[in-house]
Amino acid sequence: MEIAVPASRVAVLAECDVLVCGGGCAGVTAAVAAARHGASVILIERWPFLGGMGTAGMATGWHRSDREKMVIYGLVEEVAQRASKEGWLWRDPQYPRAHETHWFDPEGFKVVYQRMLDDAKVRTFCYTLAGEPIVEGGRIRGVLLDTKRGRRAMLAKIVVDATGDGDIAAKAGLPFEFGRPSDGRVQGMTLMYRLCGIDEAARRAAPREVVDKVYRLMCQLSDEGKLPPFNRATNLMRFGNRSIPNMCPVSGNPLDEEELTRLTAKAREQVHQYLAFMRMNAPGFAKAEIEQTAPSLGIRESRRIRGLKTLDADMVLGARKQPDAIGHGIWMVDIHDPKGTGYTTWNDRGKGNMLPQGQSYHIPLGMCLNDRIPNLAVAGRCASSTHEGHSSVRVQTHCMVMGQGVGTVAAMALAAGVDMAKVDIRALQAALKKDGVYLEDVPQA
C-alpha cells in the first residue's frame, strides 16, 4: 500500500560548501580535511556522539601495519597522537608483526573527534537524521533533514555520503551492490561488550591447560547448540576487565529496521549466556558483570555504491598500485560468515587471504566518485568494492584514508571551479602528502 504525501515548503537550516552526512571516522576525516583546505563544512550525525562503529559499535582495533611498518598516516596519525596524549590509545604488543597496531577507548575517541571538528571550525549537528537528497538537473543541492523541529533542508555545493550504508547516494539514485553474489547475504554483525568484576589475579594465574579447557568446552557446547555461535578466534579467558571481546555474531539485513531490532536483542541474550558460562567455568569470572553493551550492533557491510572504480580481492591481495591513489590499505580479506556462524576468514590467516608481508595496496579515489552525480562522493564502508574487496577496506583506518582523500578533493574542486573527478590527481596527491599521508609507488596514469 502507498499513500500520497503532500508537497510542502521546507525551511533551509543552513548552507555550506561541503555537507558531510555521517559522523563516523570517514565522515570526521572528510569534514576536517575539507575545512582545513578552506571549505565551509557542516557535518550531520544521527547519534549524540561521533565515531560511528568505533564508538557506537565499540569496535576498538586499529590496523595500520603491513607487518613490517606502519603505512597509514595523515589524519589517522593525528587522531592517534591526540588520543595517546590522553591515555585513550595504546600500542598492540605484537606491532609491527601484526596488522593491528593500536587499541582505543571508545569514550575517549568521542572526545578526540569532536575536538578535531571544533578546531577545524566544522559546524556539527548531532541528533540529526539525513533524510532525502535534493537532486536537480543531475546534481545534488543538499539534503532534507528530519529534526525535532520538523523537516529542514541543508544546502551545499558538494555532499559527502559517509553514512556507512550509503543512504544518501542510494536515495539519490546511484546504483549499488548488496551482499555476496551467490545469495545476497552481507557479512555477519557483532555486538561488542565490556565486562567488569573479573578477578584479574585468578584469571592470569590460570594454567594454560585450564584456559584451553574452558575454550574447548565453549566450542563443544556451541557445537551442541547449548551455547550460541561465537567467533572462534576469541577466547574469553584472555580478556580481562574492560576489554572488549569480538565474539557474539548475528546475521541478517542491516537495512531492515525491524530485523535489526530483533538481531540486537538476540545478540544481547548471547552476551548474558556467555557471561553465565564464564561465571560457572572460568577462573576469576565468578563475580564478573556486564559493564556495557555497545549502543549499536557492529555492522560490517551493507550497500556498496558503484563508483568509477571497484576495489576487488585481486587488487587487495596483489598489493595493486593505482594512479589515482589517495592512501594505502593493508588489511586482509576478512569475511565474517554471512550466515552468522561466527566463522571468519581471519581464522585462516596465511591461507591466501593476506597480503605479502611488507606490502600494501592503494586505495583509489575512483571508488569514492561516480559517473552520475559529479558533486556527490562517498567515503567509508559504502564505497565501491566487491564483497571480498570490501572486507579489507571496511576497517576504520582505511575508511579514514578515504575520508581524508574525499574531503581534500572536495575543497580543491571548489577552489578550482571544477568537479571532483576533474581535479588534477597529482596536485591532490601532493596535497595529501603535505598533510602527512603515506603515499608511495604511485604509477603513471
Characterization of the model:
The chain has about 450 residues and is α/β, with parallel strands linked by helices. It folds into 2 domains: about 260 residues, FAD/NAD(P)-binding domain, CATH 3.50.50.60; about 100 residues, no CATH class. The strands form 6 sheets. Strands 1, 2, 6, 7, 8, 9 and 18 form a 7-stranded mixed beta sheet that branches. The chain has a 3-stranded antiparallel beta sheet with strand order 3-5-4. A two-stranded antiparallel sheet has the order 10-15. Helix content is about 30%, strand content about 20%. It starts with 10 loop residues before the first strand and ends in an 11-residue tail after the last helix. It is globular, with a radius of gyration of 22 Å. A hairpin with an 8-residue loop joins strand 4 and strand 5.
**Please, what is the oligomeric state?**
single chain
Structural class: alpha/beta
The CATH topology annotation of the largest domain reads as FAD/NAD(P)-binding domain
Number of helices in the DSSP assignment: 11
Largest sheet: 7 strands, mixed
The domain count comes to 2
- Uncertain parts: none
Q: How would you describe the shape?
A: globular
